[in-house]
Fold this protein.
Amino acid sequence: MKKVTVYCGSRKGTSPDFERGVKQLAKEMVERNMSLIYGAGHVGLMGVIADEFLAAGQEVIGIIPQKLVDREVAHQGCTELIIVETMRDRKWLMAEKGDGFIAMPGGIGTLEELFEVMTLNQLHYIQKPLALYNIAGYYDKLLEFMDQATSSGFLYGSYRDALIVSEDPAELLDQMEAFRPQVRPDW
C-alpha cells in the first residue's frame, strides 16, 4: 500500500483534536513512505494533511473539479494537481488511484465518499482497504447506525466488519496493510 486516498473536511471542525490527529496520521504515513491522494483543497483538514506531506517532501496528488479551482480552493503546492470536470470524475479517479482509503472527520462530502467506497467494495468494483480514522470518537454515532443497519438486515455483517476503525494512526495503517478482500455472500 503506497498511495492512500484520504477523505476529509474542507473545514477544521470545532476541536483542536481533529487537526492534531490529522498531523499524527500524516507523520505516520510519511514515515511509511506513502503518497497522499486527496481532494486538492488548501482549506480545512484537507489543507492540513497536504501541508504536512509537502513539508516532509512526500508526494501529494490532488484531484479537483474545475468549478472548485475557479472558487480558488485548489492547493497550488500539490506535487501533481489533476483537474477534472465533475465531482463524479474526481471521486472515481481518487478511487482508482488509491491503494486504500481513509475517511477522517468531515461533512456530507466525506460521508458520501466513505459510503461510495464501501459500495464499490461490496459490489466488487474494487477490493481495497477502507478505514475510518475515528479522531476523538467523531464516528461513534455513525458506527452505531451501521451496527443497527446490520442487525436490521440491511448491511452484511462481513462488510461492516471489513471497515477498519481506529483512532490510532499506526494501528489504522497496520490493519489496512493486513487487509484481505471479502468474499461476497450470496444475495
